[in-house]
Amino acid sequence: MKCYGILIVLVVTVLKEVLNQCTNSPYRTFGGSCNNLQNPTWGSVNTPFSRLIPANYGDGKSSPPGAKDGTDLPNARLLSVEVFEEDVQNSPDFTLVNMQFGQVVAHDMALTRGGLLGQNYMQSVGLQYATTGFSNDYNSTVNPSVINSHTASAFRFFHSSIQGILKFYEESRKSLTKIDINDHTNNPTILEQTSDRYPNLLHGMTTQPMGLNDASLDPATKHFLFRFNNMFGVDLKALDIQRGRDHGLPRYNNFAYYCYKKRAST
Questions:
Q1: Residue 152 CB: number of other CB atoms within 10 A?
Q2: Pairing of strands 209-211, 165-169
Q3: Among residues 212, 211, 210, 217, which one has the least CA distance to residue 237?
Q4: According to the UniProt entry, where is the signal peptide (predicted)?
Q5: Average model confidence (pLDDT) for the chain?
Q6: I want to staple 90 with a disulfide (CB 3.0 to 4.6 A). Which of 11, 100, 111, 209 is the partner?
Q7: For the chain, which domains are there?
Q8: Do 3 and 9 touch, CB atoms closer than 8 A?
């Protein structure tokens, strides 16, 4: 109880310091602090993720969660190999630039929806504002912080859309060459060899289909991600599974009850 009291005092102290730093400016801050004067730290950089429901840790604080019978959970890599397939299937609807845009959003803002809802649907649910006039919808009680379960789990659905091979095209959509992403991770040299490499890559990303959103991963991300000069690399699906445990993501039934007040029995 004493620890919680100290924590509350620290939080209040930090909030007071932030409030004292808030200036009477008509402009937003780059870091997000003071944009909401009633809750000046909400949505700002270097603040914790928010949670919809309590975390699932073994000791309630930080240790890895265990199975219902008290044993350790199965190895993440073993689960990846046994449960999730490896295959390359193309999306019939979307090109690779859709996956890449999703990754940019996930890594940068972590909570912004893409444009796949469609204009008609966005208008029907009030997500699209009129181009004239003004809006008075601001609500200081809405917390815009990144939700842990969203950024550490839900946003990772694009991982099955990653293609292990990137294809380069001319503007006419004539195929030029292709590269293995794991041969060039963190190494953009190939894009700097000639002046047309960036356009060729962009033409490719707007032409090449992205992977199908399913339970399978491209072998390039299943066994060889970030391999650099090694024979093997990282298993992205195993990384996703372990990330969920590290973040203490609650179990499926906890979310089912949170959303629908029901739990799956089988």
A1: 19
A2: unpaired
A3: 217
A4: 1-20
A5: 85
A6: 209
A7: 2-24+31-137+145-260 (1.10.640.10)
A8: no
Residue 203 is assigned to a ligand binding site: no
Give the sign of the dihedral formed by CA 96, CA 101, CA 103, CA 104: positive
Could you give the 3-state DSSP secondary structure of residue 196?
coil
E strand spans, 96-163? none
Closest CA to 166 of 134, 208, 126: 208
**Dist. CA 262–CA 48, nearest whole Å:** 29
pLDDT (tens digit per residue) in 148-190? 998 888 888 889 999 999 999 999 999 999 999 888 888 888 8
CA distances from 173 to 94, 202, 208, 209, 248 (A): 16, 11, 10, 13, 46
Q: Is 83 exposed, middle or buried (0-12, 13-18, 19+ CB in 10 A)?
A: exposed
